[in-house]
Amino acid sequence: MEKGKIRNNKILLFFVILIFISCKNKSQTSIDDEKNENKTINNITVISSDSLLELVQKQTFKYFWDFAEPETGLVRERSQDMFTLTSGGTGMGISSFPAAVNRNWITKNQAIQHLTKILLFLENADTYHGAFSHWYFKNGKTKEFSEYDDGGDIVETALLMQGLLINRAYFSGNDKEEKNIRKRITALWRPDIFSIAIDISPSDARACAASTERASKLPSPVSADFVIAFKHASTLSLSRFARNF
Fold it and tell me: Contact 114/177 with Cβ under 8 angstroms?
């Protein structure tokens, strides 16, 4: 009698486990379907989580790409202002070029041509001991950010430089155009701007420069190393150094 009871309990336990596994697999399948499949409810298409994420990322990239100033390639400060170009915003925009190429939003040749246009502007723009201004007119002249901020901006320069370094690492081919891009970006990259622009020691300046280069090789443009790269410059008013520095 006791053996039969134990046997029945084992059979019951087996079916409980089987039902649990079945429910778990069904639940997981449902989650995966929700992530990967679009649905139609009351004639309205409800996109999946993955599709929504892809759409948000693509549209964010398209702001930097479609709304760039056509002659210079630089990103505009805001959609209501067609004449103010931003160095830091441009760095953010070009940071997304490798992802855009890999996802076939643009071709590699389109990215190269756009980047070439930006480099031509930067090579002829006003700079201050290697640092770029926060804002520019399309003729390359500094547009003052405020009454006392009309020169180089080390924070915006850090954002711009990381975008450039990301592309220097990405365009690693041996063809003439990619070699030219790497050479021109290297010419613009001034690791010593951290010590020139703000009062920090040479060793700290080298650490900032090295962190910026390391961050440019990471998958994410926003990283802990990148924050370190301009931590000194983000303190009160240190992001500015005047035109007559």
Answer: no
Q: pLDDT tens digit string along 214-241?
A: 555 544 443 343 344 434 333 323 333 3
Question: Using CA atoms, how far apart are residues 141 and 243, in angstroms rounded to an integer?
Answer: 12
For residue range 68-109, what is the model confidence (pLDDT) as tens digits?
A: 999 999 999 988 889 999 999 999 999 999 999 999 999 999
Q: Mark residue 138 as left, alpha or beta (left: phi above 0; alpha: psi -120 to 50; beta: remaining).
A: alpha
First and final C-alpha spacing in the chain: 98
Q: Domains in the chain, start-ordered, CATH in brackets? A: 53-241 (1.50.10.140)
- What element of type H or E holds 78? strand 75-78
* Closest CA relative to residue 120, chosen from 66, 184, 167: 184
**Which residues of the chain fall short of a pLDDT of 50?**
15-16, 18, 27, 29-31, 199-201, 218-245
175-185 burial, b at 16+ Cβ within 10 Å, e below that, comes to eeebeebbebb
What pTM, to 2 d.p., does this model score? 0.67
Contact present, 206 and 138 (Cβ < 8 Å): no
How far apart, in whole angstroms, are the C-alpha atoms of residue 245 and residue 236? 17
Secondary structure of residue 202 in the 3-state scheme? helix
